[in-house]
Design brief:
Two copies of one chain form a homodimer.
Chain A lengths: L1 E5 L4 E5 L1 E6 L5 E6 L2 E5 L4 E7 L3 H9 L1 E6 L5 H9 L7 H4 L4 E3 L6 E3 L4 E12 L3 E14 L11 H4 L2 E5 L3 E11 L7
Antiparallel strand pairs in A: 2-12, 3-4, 3-7, 5-6, 6-11, 7-10, 8-9, 10-11, 12-13
Chain lengths: 187, 187
């Protein structure tokens, strides 16, 4: 029997995405979001939702670019920190001993220590409500060699990503494989 | 050292969302997507991306509504099945022994067997490329009582959700808790 929880943003699992951008004076900044993901296959696009009052907002608008960085479970403290404090008040890269690398493809920095990075060029800006959704075309995906399998593909067990449970407030590890897409449900 | 994988939709973790809608003649249909999630806190909104050639597309446009249903790991076979086959060819509810329940709030069905449901009224339709993004306002969240904790909140360990790894193609269970948001990264 289902019961109502009201009109709320309760959804699980959601990704934990660290969004990299230059601010309006060119300094690198990062913030963590869970309102985002992939939104189109061709052109390949990622979406990230940011509130207008967030420090990252102005830089993404000005530079028309952002990166999406995926931390490993061992980096949960850094990810939560950069989602808690503002780049207005401090250099979050310095505070968390993270390294900003200038993308060759878009005007945004990525986080060297995080294993998976998407470099995105801003294509659409959607005003929804308190959040603005930025849709960026993925110009390249960069990945650490040590999270690839022997065929050069992403190895989830090596990446050790983690999820956010919206409405519950926790971060949870990703566990074991339970099947392949277009396979486990085949007739 | 990072290496390039090219301009591709490689991202992990992503949710596995079963989207419910009525087709243009009023029959319930479901499809599974991973290009979606939460995109705004106020009004609370969810986004789902659907290709124009998918059977669900016309029904969502006509009825201006959809539901987002979250299956548990034990339901991975059903979720993959409804993401593999088309409602043009068969009644996927019947094929998977799933029950369509008419939402009281929006003109879309939800899946009775799946533990977490968002009922969404279509608010924005964004043409991105091969995918159209539907943004719906969450009118209510419905949840099975047996995935709530003693305080009436979502219990992730009971929900047992699972993720999709885009670019790798696998479904993976959600494991143990690794911290609380706005807590594990506090100064």
């Amino acid at each position: 029997m289902k019961q109502s929880l009201g009109a709320k943003t309760i959804l699980c699992p959601l990704p934990v995405l660290v969004v990299g951008s230059y601010d309006e004076s060119g300094r690198p900044n990062v913030m963590t979001i869970s309102w985002g993901g992939i939104c189109c296959s061709d052109p390949p696009c990622a979406a990230v939702s940011v509130r207008k009052n967030r420090y990252s907002y102005g830089g993404i608008v000005k530079n028309e670019a952002f990166t999406v960085n995926v931390p490993s479970a061992a980096q949960v403290r850094q990810a939560d920190y950069v989602g808690t404090y503002s780049g207005r008040d401090e250099d979050k890269f310095a505070a968390m001993d993270l390294t900003a690398v200038r993308s060759d493809l878009v005007n945004a920095p990525y986080v060297d220590e995080f294993p998976l990075v998407l470099e995105c060029a801003l294509r659409h800006t959607i005003e929804i409500g308190v959040h603005t959704q930025f849709i960026g075309e993925i110009m390249d995906v960069k990945i650490e060699a040590d999270v690839l399998d022997e065929n050069g593909r992403l190895d989830v067990a090596k990446l050790q990503p983690f999820i956010y449970a919206a409405g519950e407030g926790g971060y949870w590890a990703v566990g074991g494989s339970i099947g392949r897409s277009y396979a486990v449900g085949k007739k």
